[in-house]
Amino acid sequence: MALQSMTGFARHAATYSGSKGGAEGDTRIVWEVRSVNGKGLDVRFRLPQGFEGIEPPARTALSRHFSRGNFQAALTVERPDAKADVALNEAYLANVMAVGERLRAQYGLAPASVDGILALRGVLVEPQEAEDEQARAGLEAAIVSTLDGALAALSEARRTEGHSIGAILAGQVDMIAELAQRARNDPSRSVEAVRERLAAQVALLLDTPNGLDETRLYMEAAFLATKADIQEELDRLDTHVTSARQLIGTGGPIGRKLDFLSQEFNREANTLCSKSNAGSITAIGLELKAVVDQFREQVQNLE
């Protein structure tokens, strides 16, 4: 199953002839759909007046294709045989003017301007050819079908970008695994190096006028050295690397799971840095944190 990015754009157009047939009666339907990152599935539609009933089936169609992302879907319906002039909604205008006159008389408001009245939604309407229920249902079905085409194109665009992101993530996981191995093989973790550090620390403390007990100092130093060991963090990093590779290989909507793993990677990197008692290990930990940050940034783009 392919990975999908949450970012994409698609435009799909179709013509609908209805019961008329012939190019002179064709209605052109155009959907433009774009998506960006989102925690859940959020959809906003921009529909022409009179087509508000399309939203419920359109929303259902979109939820069949996608599970995450912020979407904007714009519908354009062009009818070549529609008249160029506009119609005035006389009854609605009369009500608006009556309310305006009452408010002007009651509160002393200035008279409304013509352009202000005409700008009110519903005063001017585009004349539409009378449609029976069957013709209207056919047009709405064609609109939803055209949306399915746009969503399929958007899904393909998101898969293409998701493939590229997957390759980047796989490389970053490989780098995390390599850094963990470098830390595991670092000379500062050898028995000889640990023994030398302990001996140097104990010698430094014994070289004081207080006469500290040498045996007790060695016990405390050994305890601190054990506490500073990073083996557990390295083992967990290996486990997380295996999980990340399995998820990327499986594909599908894995963005949330990879985001959780990125937090686990970051936690182990922080602990590794805090436990480190060698400059080389600290350097590896800082490099690891940088790679994990890059990994998490890419994961935010995945569905």
Query: Which percent band covers the strand fraction?
Result: 5-15%
Instruction: Choose one word for the global shape.
Output: elongated
SS-based class = alpha+beta
Q: For the residues shown, what is the average pLDDT?
A: 84
Strand order of the largest sheet: 1-2-4-3
Q: How far is it from the N-terminal to the C-terminal residue, by CA? A: 12 Å
Helix content: 55-70%
Query: H/E element string?
Result: EEEHEEHHEHHHHHH
Number of domains: 3
Radius of gyration: 34 Å
Biggest sheet record: 4 strands, mixed
Q: Low-confidence runs (pLDDT<50, min 5 residues)?
A: 20-24
Explain this structure.
The protein is α+β, with helices and mostly antiparallel strands. The protein has 3 domains: 8-84 and 128-159, Ribosomal Protein S5, domain 2; 87-125, no CATH class; 160-299. Helices cover 59% and strands 13% of the residues. The chain is built from 9 helices and 6 strands, in the order E-E-E-H-E-E-H-H-E-H-H-H-H-H-H. The chain has helices spanning 55-65, 90-107, 114-118, 133-184, 191-206, 214-227, 231-250, 255-275, 279-299, and strands spanning 8-16, 27-36, 41-46, 69-78, 87-88, 124-125. The strands form 2 sheets. The chain has a 4-stranded mixed sheet with strand order 1-2-4-3, with helices on one face. It has a two-stranded antiparallel sheet with strand order 5-6. Strand 3 (41-46), helix 1 (55-65) and strand 4 form a beta-alpha-beta unit. Helix 1 (55-65) packs parallel to helix 4 (133-184) and helix 8 (255-275) runs antiparallel to helix 9. The longest helix has 52 residues, at 133-184. The chain is elongated. The two termini are 12 Å apart. Mean pLDDT is 84; it is low at 20-24.
